[in-house]
Amino acid sequence: MEVITERDGETLIAKTDGRVDGTNATDFQDALRNAITPDDKAVILDFGELSYISSAGLRVILLTAKDMRSANVKFAVCSLSKPVKDVFTISGFDQIIDIHDTQSEARTAVQG
Amino acid sequence: MMSEKVSLTIDPASCPSQEQALQIITSAVEELGQREAWPDSLVFKVNLVLEELGLNIISYGGESGGPHPEIEIVITSENDSLTIEVSDDGRPFDPFEDAPEATVNAAIEDRRIGGLGIHLVQTMMDDLSYQHTGGKNRLTMVARREE
User: Fold this and answer.
1) Which CATH architecture is the domain A3-104 placed in?
2) All structural domains of chain A with their residue ranges
3) Cα–chain-centroid distance for residue B18?
4) What domain range includes position B69?
């Protein structure tokens, strides 16, 4: 698992690849916490290269979504593979987190 | 009917850490999935179910500070279904009854952090049963093949 970040204006885009599981979810959490700065107005998690996620990784996404909500920062995820999207839906994350098919759709949504 | 069976033992002496346990599970699932031509979604599902249950047993099944229980996993792949059996000699615990319930419908502020793992297992597998016999927790789960 690796988290690679870039900025588009005041939007942070964090791309995560590989597996996020019970053994590296805290590394995932640390990587996101270190990447997000108080100046960011929006955060997009791009999961286009994410092959696997379990509840330990979902926990980090939920915590991040809660933090962003209380900091008034826009938050979206994008480019989920079918199995990852299924896991999000089963967890009810589709009701509380903005999910977009592509990164450009997510950018338009958070910057619009 | 063609059927292919894989048995794994996660022994606390030779495999004390979560990382090692997950490595054993993942490589066995990928290998069986390849041999049985499972779709990626099924490999994902079996890995997820075994991670959620296995890491729960490793984290909470043993005496506090002691080694984790011995875990045995049997995966039977058949044409139209897949059966996963997980047993362990830890403290009696029925994850489908005793685990805290996940909050999957609440507003974001009210979402609890825990319970999602077991909720995923319950939703993704079609038949679930728990028994405690012979001093062991025994879980049997069946996933019917969709295609």
Assistant:
1) 2-Layer Sandwich (3.30)
2) 3-104
3) 13
4) 4-144
We report the CATH number of the domain holding residue B14 as 3.30.565.10
Chain B contacts of A59, Cβ < 8 Å? 113-114, 116
Q: Please answer whether residues B72 and B86 qualify as being in contact, where contact means their C-beta atoms are separated by less than 8 angstroms.
A: yes
The backbone torsions φ and ψ at residue A56, rounded to the nearest 5 degrees and listed phi first, read -65, -40
Distance CA B80, CA B112 (A): 36
pLDDT of residue B49: 98
pTM over cut 0.90? yes
Reply yes or no on whether the pLDDT at B43 is more than 90.
yes
> How far apart, in whole angstroms, are the C-alpha atoms of residue B109 and residue B135?
41
Q: Which residues in chain B are closer than 8 Å to A57, comparing Cβ atoms? A: none
Pairing of strands A11-20, A50-53: parallel
CA dihedral B11, B87, B48, A3 (to 10 degrees): -30
Q: Give A57-104 as a DSSP string.
A: HHHHHHHHHHHHHHTT-EEEEE---HHHHHHHHHTTGGGTSEEESSHH
Query: To the nearest whole angstrom, how far is the Cα of B46 from the nearest Cα of chain A?
Result: 11
Q: Is B131 helix (H, G, I), strand (E, B) or coil?
A: strand
Residue B122 has pLDDT above 90, yes or no: yes
